[in-house]
């Protein structure tokens, strides 16, 4: 792609989104869908955040690699992300694992997912490749990271953020010098090393990498020929470049898209039931850290056509109402009470039900007189009349999936077992 004047670097970049992971720590929420396809924030999917960041940053060539139980994810991408036009030099490629290299090999690692699609990526002729994880919730201007990559002369630029050391074992952990040069990189260490002067913090990789395209292709081919490699960016590609090249860290604070004057930098890996519940419930705060109402940096998604939410009945003890809650389109709150809850599209809550601290996915029906507290309810579940959850953790644990923090996950299969 030919550079013209002072065009943004994003116009010469392709975003490659890795969206093939299951996310097994989300338990039954990923029995039928990949983690990037899990619902989030009332009407979005988790993958919408990485994709929206790319579009809002000016990137118009995007590829998404899928693998684990990808049908709902692919359907979402086809419905909500089909607005790219080739005549405007835009593209959106969905790349399911299809044994392109070998009849016995699916994607065996994150780097292999890119390697197996080199011919497709090369055909776009972009100068830079931005590799993104498709399973995190955040807002980030990738143009700022691209500029740092070019100005620093890096072989790879790695997005990073400070996080509590106790929560860092599931991430790549790095040590940098005062210039941002990465001096060591450990993938998911059991005992994450602390940052200098910050014993309770570690510097973690966000799973975001910027490469010059030709450099990346050479590295992928080198790695593919190594029989001892796991063909993974965090385990193999990045540590190799740290030792033999120039790897630079990009601090998330420098490119985080904040809400107005709010100094907080929001990033979440909603990878456990507790974290998923917390990240959604946080959106009910008066001023949440993640601003879904910011029209200057919108979160694009599949916009299902629905009627407005409806609240009916106004009798003592049977009043349709919601306090400190987010209620999506086509929801009907019929003589029920909601507090500090988030309802996705098409949820029906029937009379005399009481719902508190709940994340309820699309098209759930909550029966009359049910009392639900501290719950995550999967799509399409029919809650029986009078069901009580959240008042007796020991009893809940015998019927449903209950976390150490007291959050109860409910699926239709669990409900069906109660009725047999």
TrEMBL record:
One of its GO terms (molecular function) is glucose-1-phosphate adenylyltransferase activity. HAMAP family: GlgC. Residues 15-284 form the Nucleotidyl transferase domain. It catalyses: alpha-D-glucose 1-phosphate + ATP + H(+) = ADP-alpha-D-glucose + diphosphate. The record marks 67, 106 as: Could play a key role in the communication between the regulatory and the substrate sites. This is Glucose-1-phosphate adenylyltransferase. Pfam families: Hexapep_GlmU, NTP_transferase. Involved in the biosynthesis of ADP-glucose, a building block required for the elongation reactions to produce glycogen. Catalyzes the reaction between ATP and alpha-D-glucose 1-phosphate (G1P) to produce pyrophosphate and ADP-Glc. Residues 307-410 form the Glucose-1-phosphate adenylyltransferase/Bifunctional protein GlmU-like C-terminal hexapeptide domain. InterPro entries: ADP-Glc_PPase, ADP_Glu_pyroP_CS, GlgC_bac, GlmU/GlgC-like_hexapep, NTP_transferase_dom, Nucleotide-diphossugar_trans, Trimer_LpxA-like_sf. Keywords: ATP-binding, Carbohydrate metabolism, Glycogen biosynthesis, Glycogen metabolism, Nucleotide-binding, Nucleotidyltransferase, Transferase. The keyword Transferase applies. Its EC number is 2.7.7.27. Homotetramer. Belongs to the bacterial/plant glucose-1-phosphate adenylyltransferase family. Signal peptide: none annotated. NCBIfam families: glgC, PRK00725.1, PRK00844.1. Pathway: Glycan biosynthesis; glycogen biosynthesis. PROSITE patterns: ADP_GLC_PYROPHOSPH_1 (PS00808), ADP_GLC_PYROPHOSPH_2 (PS00809), ADP_GLC_PYROPHOSPH_3 (PS00810). Alpha-D-glucose 1-phosphate binds at residues 107, 172, 187-188, 205.
């Amino acid at each position: 792609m030919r550079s013209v004047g002072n065009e943004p670097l994003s116009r010469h970049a392709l975003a490659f989104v890795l969206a093939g992971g299951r996310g097994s720590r989300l338990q039954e929420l990923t029995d039928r869908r990949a983690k990037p396809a899990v619902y989030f924030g009332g009407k979005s999917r988790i993958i919408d955040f990485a994709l929206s960041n790319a579009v809002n940053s000016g990137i118009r060539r995007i590829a998404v690699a899928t693998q684990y139980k990808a049908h709902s994810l692919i359907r979402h991408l086809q419905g909500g992300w089909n607005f790219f036009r080739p005549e405007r030099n835009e593209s959106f490629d969905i790349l399911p694992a299809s044994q392109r290299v070998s009849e016995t090999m699916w994607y065996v690692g994150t780097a292999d997912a890119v390697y197996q699609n080199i011919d497709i990526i090369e055909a776009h002729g972009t100068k830079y490749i931005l590799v993104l994880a498709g399973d995190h919730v955040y807002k980030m201007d990738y143009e700022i990271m691209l500029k740092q990559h070019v100005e620093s002369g890096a072989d790879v630029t790695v997005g990073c953020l400070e996080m509590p050391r106790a929560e860092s074992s599931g991430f790549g952990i790095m040590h940098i010098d005062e210039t941002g040069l990465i001096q060591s990189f450990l993938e998911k260490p059991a005992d994450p090393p602390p940052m200098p002067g910050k014993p309770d913090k570690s510097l973690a990789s966000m799973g975001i990498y910027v490469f010059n395209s030709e450099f990346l292709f050479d590295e992928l081919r080198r790695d593919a020929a190594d029989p001892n490699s796991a063909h993974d960016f965090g385990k193999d590609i990045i540590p190799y470049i740290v030792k033999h090249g120039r790897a630079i860290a990009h601090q998330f604070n420098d490119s985080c898209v904040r809400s107005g004057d709010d100094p907080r930098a929001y990033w979440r890996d909603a990878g456990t039931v507790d974290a998923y519940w917390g990240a959604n419930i946080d959106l009910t705060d008066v001023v949440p850290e993640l601003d879904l109402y910011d029209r200057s940096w919108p979160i694009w998604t599949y916009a299902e056509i629905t009627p407005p939410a409806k609240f009916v009945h106004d009798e003592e003890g049977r009043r349709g109402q919601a306090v400190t809650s987010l209620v999506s389109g086509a929801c009907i709150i019929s003589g029920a009470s909601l507090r500090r809850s988030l309802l996705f599209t098409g949820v029906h809550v029937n009379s005399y039900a009481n719902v508190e601290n709940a994340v309820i996915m699309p098209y759930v029906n909550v029966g009359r007189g049910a009392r639900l507290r501290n719950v995550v309810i999967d799509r399409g579940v029919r809650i029986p009349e009078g069901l009580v959850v959240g008042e007796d953790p020991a009893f809940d644990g015998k019927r449903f999936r209950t976390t150490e923090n007291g959050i109860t996950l409910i699926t239709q299969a669990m409900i069906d077992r109660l009725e047999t």
